[in-house]
């Protein structure tokens, strides 16, 4: 199943999908993931393949999820505007502020589209950084790689949460709910497998997450 065979009405993407063919091992891992997804077993596809390096597996899947979320968000950009979504939120109880080590050193309120585009650019900056996501075989991952990965997944979850809480009706109208549900289920199985997100972060979508985990397959 391809997550990227989306509706022809999809708008221009915020960022171009990131390719990973530069790294042969990572490309093979991507192909393995696609093949396993074809089996219909999301609980199986997230498991670390025997003999593979954990960091390579995390890196490969991070690029994949970045592409999935980029594509899914691209389908609803005409609905997610600063006027309709003046803050980055997931329902009425959860608001997300942006902070990074460069431009926004203090928690900063943003509209949802500004937050998501800043987030996608932030993730891409890591993916494109050879010192963080090395693409040449034999080059080591940084010692802080695990911390970076956890921060990336914590923030990517927020995009799913915003889409589900504020734009699910648009997703349904576009006929993309199956893509969204499969992508998010895959995401949840993956982060649970490697403990990448604290359980409290699931709160805005707790019921949906619980339903996926309870009926894991």
From TrEMBL:
Any one biological process term the GO annotation gives: positive regulation of septation initiation signaling
Domain of life: Eukaryota
GO molecular function, one term: protein kinase activator activity
Keyword line: Metal-binding, Zinc
Xref: Pfam families: Mob1_phocein (PF03637)
Signal peptide extent: none
Cellular component terms (Gene Ontology): cellular bud neck; medial cortex; meiotic spindle pole body; new mitotic spindle pole body; old mitotic spindle pole body; serine/threonine protein kinase complex; Sid2-Mob1 complex
Amino acids binding Zn(2+): 80, 85, 162, 167
PANTHER family: MPS ONE BINDER KINASE ACTIVATOR-LIKE MOB (PTHR22599)
The protein's name: Maintenance of ploidy protein mob1
Species the sequence originates in: Pneumocystis carinii (strain B80)
Lineage start: Eukaryota, Fungi, Dikarya, Ascomycota, Taphrinomycotina
């Amino acid at each position: 199943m391809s997550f990227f065979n989306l509706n022809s009405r999809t708008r221009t993407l915020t960022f171009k999908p990131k390719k990973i063919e530069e790294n042969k091992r990572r490309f093979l891992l991507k192909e393995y993931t696609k093949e396993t997804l074809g089996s219909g077993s999301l609980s199986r596809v997230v498991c670390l393949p025997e003999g593979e390096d954990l960091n390579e597996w995390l890196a490969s899947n991070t690029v994949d999820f970045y592409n999935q979320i980029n594509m899914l968000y691209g389908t609803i950009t005409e609905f997610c505007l600063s006027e309709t979504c003046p803050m980055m939120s997931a329902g009425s109880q959860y608001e997300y502020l942006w902070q990074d080590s460069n431009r926004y050193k203090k928690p900063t309120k943003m509209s949802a589209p500004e937050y998501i585009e800043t987030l996608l650019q932030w993730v891409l900056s890591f993916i494109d950084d050879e010192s963080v996501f090395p693409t040449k075989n034999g080059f080591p991952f940084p010692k802080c790689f695990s911390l970076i990965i956890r921060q990336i997944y914590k923030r990517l979850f927020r995009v799913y949460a915003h889409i589900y809480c504020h734009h699910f009706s648009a997703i349904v109208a576009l006929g993309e709910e199956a893509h969204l549900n499969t992508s998010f289920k895959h995401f949840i199985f993956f982060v649970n497998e490697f403990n990448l997100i604290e359980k409290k972060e699931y709160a805005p979508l707790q019921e949906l997450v619980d339903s996926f985990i309870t009926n894991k397959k």
